[in-house]
Design a protein that fits this description.
Elements (H helix, E strand, L loop, with lengths): L1 H16 L1 H30 L27 H10 L20 H5 L4
């Protein structure tokens, strides 16, 4: 323990002599620890945590194909009919994924006209 306390005091003296190096070292450690924590939080939430449903391995996705549009969304009245006539599944739910474009049609609106 005596050697450890001497090493810590020596390290603190060296950091006090060079405050610029100490600041760079602390900032580098802070950025590294922060990035590691952020990445772990995302990986833990997306890949490692189980789904918040009982028996997630029994989840099923249903789709409705239309003659002129493959993979279209299910209309709400059809969903209500499916829910009413359901004798196979324990429950049904509906969701719709939405995709947004942040670009839009800005090149046409903002193009310079010559």
């Amino acid at each position: 323990m005596n050697g450890l306390s001497q090493d810590i005091r020596y390290g603190l003296r060296q950091l006090r002599k060079r405050p610029g190096f100490a600041a760079v070292a602390v900032i580098t450690l802070a950025l590294g620890i922060g990035a590691n924590t952020a990445i772990f939080s995302v990986v833990n939430g997306v890949l490692l945590s189980p789904l918040p449903f009982p028996e997630p391995d029994r989840l099923v996705t249903l789709h409705e194909n239309k003659p002129n549009f493959e993979g279209g969304s299910v209309s709400y009245p059809n969903f209500r009919d499916w829910q009413k006539d359901n004798h196979t599944f324990s429950s049904l739910a509906i969701s719709r994924p939405y995709d947004f474009s942040l670009i839009g049609d800005w090149p046409r609106r903002w193009a310079l006209r010559v």
